[in-house]
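Researcher: Hi, I'm a grad student and pretty new to this. My advisor asked me to get structures for two proteins we've been looking at. I'm not sure of the right format, so I'll just paste the first sequence and hope you can take it from there.
Model: That works fine. Here's the first sequence with its structure tokens right after it:
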Amino acid sequence: MSVVTRRIGLRGRQRGVTLIEALAAFVILSIGLLGIVSLQALSKSAQHQAVQRSRAVTLGNDLLERIRVNPAGLEFYVVADDAPVGGGTFEEAPDTDCAAAVCTPEALAAYDLWRWEQTLDGAAVTITEDAVTANTAGLIDPRGCTVFEADPNKDRTGTMNVIIQWRGLSESTDAVAVGEIACGGAVSGSDPFRRQVIVSSYVIDEDEICNVTPC
């Protein structure tokens, strides 16, 4: 057999090898791209949930600051777990704009809770599609409650707990353990999508303290 014949035979046996290598490389590349896309989706989900939690903490501190400014109206800031704020529970704004006028402690508390719910719902930023307007800057399905624990012999001095709950993107352990405050949602321990933040602070009414002990 001549050299030319042997070379032709070798080329014939190697025919299609390059195509198989290309297909294998394509499969490997596809698997890698799918992994990258999946990782990016998980990253976006984790980032979104981190933003929601950070926003909830900020909102809790916001209400606490409003209460500190108006300790005389503390009792009017208490929001029971069976009637939480969030999701447009206040149909209309208060009659008096306490940001521009002097209000009683009760009126200021009502105004503060309305403003707080507006922020909780993200009502400042909306989008309209098919004649339906939706909030886009707030928490997902938010609910807010407050629990006040007064010091002995005090009415407006003690620990204020602001409870904020919202819906997460994926199932997990319910953030509200059995027996804890469900804040208007499903019973405790039964909602795997529920997320929760509790912001606590000590609130002092100086007028109340000074009436007992001269300041």
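Researcher: Oh nice, that was easy. Here's the second one.
Model: And its structure:
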Amino acid sequence: MKIALTGGSGFVGSNLIPYLLSCGEEVSVLSREQINSREFALPIDAEAFIHLAGKAHDLKKTPDADEYYKVNFELTKKLFDAFLSSNAKIFIFLSSVKASADSVNGVLDEESVPNPTTHYGRSKLKAETYMLSKPLPPDKRFYILRPCMIHGPGNKGNLNLLYKFVKAGIPYPFASFDNHRSFLSVENLCFIIIRLLKLSPASGIYNLSDDGYLSTNQVVEVLAAVLGKKPRLLHIPKKLLIFLSRIGDRFNLPLNSDRLTKLTEDYRVNNAKIKAIIGEDMPQNAVEGLKLTVKSFGI
């Protein structure tokens, strides 16, 4: 299959392209110059289009919020319109679970009513809403993928930072919070995308996550095990940590309420719908995927 995609130089793209090539697919990456041209159109021979490019890292309190809508909505709108008038049959849009909810009580599934509170989540949801509003020719399909936190080789996010703390022997100070989170290995994401391309099921929205949930304490334990270290977990009282985080809010300290929430909140995602569509479990469960990611950091 001939596939065109955006965001080839990003974290997901740098993992997905070699994966697709190893599966025998042909891949062409659209440059920013091509997309921004007035006469932009999808390559005439493209059979599928994968839209990975987007603006991440929510900056809801900054004045450049319009950039989220320009990149995550306007760009997606332009590319989806080009898809509708092209010869391509499949459009895959990498959205986010944050298009549905920034915090989760219970388990998030596709039936949950979207209520994003950040510009990042709202801009992704606006793009989804536009796609769902357009009449779709009977021979075309589109898939809105909502991944939770993606990790894998080349990951530069909070997981890498936590790895450095564990490697340095610094105790994890938030062990009193017993949270449970979903993760998604980039290997599982690539697997889902290739299966959608092969099976071409009905269009729809799909939450993506590994099988199983992990607490941050378990993540620290996995990191330590791979490093051959004993996990160091400090059970500082929750009330004291919350108090210190509020001081951090006031004086712009490293520990603030937002960072404490990100490290200790629950965020569980149900992946039953996508598994029913592809007819298989994820190749890697949450622990297996995490171990491979940690090993990619270098021991």
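Researcher: Is there anything I should tell my advisor about the second?
Model: You could mention this: The chain has a mean pLDDT of 93.
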